[in-house]
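Re: the 87-residue chain
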Amino acid sequence: MSDLSPSKLILLLLVALLLFGAKRLPEIGRSLGSGLREFKSSVSGDDSTGESREPGNTSAIARSLGGELREVKEVVSGAIEPDRTHT
């Protein structure tokens, strides 16, 4: 395939405009941009969440996940088990 010339780029943009419409193109561009930023940060090792990936930080993460898992378990078990107060 040959290089991407300006005329081919314009044709590609017009086809995208016809396929997705003028309202969806900015949304698609934003989602592509954020996806590329996340991919780039994960590949380069940057962590913008403020949590370090050092071994000493794993216990805090495990405690946090343990608490969230307990909450999910309570919600799921409450939804699955029948209400025994009406028997």
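The chain has a mean pLDDT of 76.
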